[in-house]
Design brief:
four-stranded antiparallel β-sheet, 150 residues, Alpha-Beta Plaits
């Protein structure tokens, strides 16, 4: 085969430092647009980005030439810098070091996009921690809760 082709879909989830609600609601949409452009700059297509003041969900492709951890390192680093410069209230902003990355089939993409779009409704009765643990269980990811939240 003369060229390498791939389409790997991901649902990425990561939180603010200590899961504090440090994303100002009035900046959220602008942050999501910035994250989409950061994904694009690193060869990833973001289908949908959304979240809450304490975390973000991204449905995107994994670039053929990058690892999940490298993609996340780059978009978290640049977006952290961007939000600090964008609003002085965010001078101490940081993302949590870890993340969740879950594989998707093409047939699951629309459901994940809808899930991301309904974050406000979803979190009316569920915390980020409860949501994240559900994903870990759904995808059968072994984890030790003593370390998952430190």
């Amino acid at each position: 085969m003369a060229q390498s082709l791939s389409k790997i879909l991901l649902h990425l989830i990561f939180s603010t430092k200590d899961r504090e609600p440090t994303i100002p609601p009035e900046l959220a949409d602008e942050l999501y647009r910035y994250l989409a452009s950061a994904c694009d700059a690193h060869g990833s297509h973001a289908y949908r980005i959304g979240g809450m003041p304490d975390h973000v969900h991204i449905a995107c492709t994994l670039p053929r030439t990058a690892s999940v951890s490298k993609l996340l390192e780059e978009i978290k680093k640049s977006s952290s810098k961007w939000i600090k410069e964008r609003d002085r209230r965010c001078a101490g902003f940081a993302w949590q070091g870890g993340f969740g990355a879950f594989s998707l089939g093409q047939s699951q993409l629309d459901a994940v996009i809808q899930y991301i779009e309904r974050q406000t409704e979803h979190h009316a009765n569920k915390t980020f921690k409860e949501e994240f643990v559900e994903f870990l269980r759904k995808y059968k990811v072994d984890h030790d809760e003593r370390y998952a939240w430190s």
